[in-house]
Inverse folding.
């Protein structure tokens, strides 16, 4: 009988720990996603300053970022899935085809900002 109580208590504690770890992993993936998007923005700015040409359209990780340079789009963090970058080269902006952890970021020549939050606070 005591053994069953101990096993039940351990099960309850394990459930509480797992429930608290999952949001932390999602927040870490979103923060990493935002960092990757900021580095893409920096790369696109470097492309323009260096006289290169931004390649528009849907681009996947490993695709060339800029004609005239060897920069490529980085992979997105684990937990964000495999998403395509969408580059509009008319006034250049870059985002991903779908959100990461409920957060989608849009970057342009001035900043990176939240473009979509599936749930309030997902991008924080």
């Amino acid at each position: 009988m005591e053994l069953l109580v101990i096993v039940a208590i351990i099960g309850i504690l394990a459930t509480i720990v797992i429930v608290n770890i999952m949001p932390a992993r999602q927040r870490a993936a979103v923060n990493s996603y935002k960092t990757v998007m900021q580095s893409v923005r920096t790369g696109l700015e470097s492309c323009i300053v260096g006289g290169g040409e931004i390649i528009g359209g849907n681009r996947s990780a490993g695709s060339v970022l800029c004609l005239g340079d060897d920069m490529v789009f980085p992979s997105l963090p684990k937990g964000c899935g495999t998403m395509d970058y969408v580059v509009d080269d008319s006034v250049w902006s870059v985002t991903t085809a779908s959100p990461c952890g409920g957060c989608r970021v849009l970057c342009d020549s001035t900043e990176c900002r939240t473009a979509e939050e599936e749930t309030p606070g997902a991008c924080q």
In short: The chain has a mean pLDDT of 81. The chain is about 40% helix and 20% strand. Residues 2-117 form one domain. The CA atoms of residues 5 and 66 lie 62 Å apart.
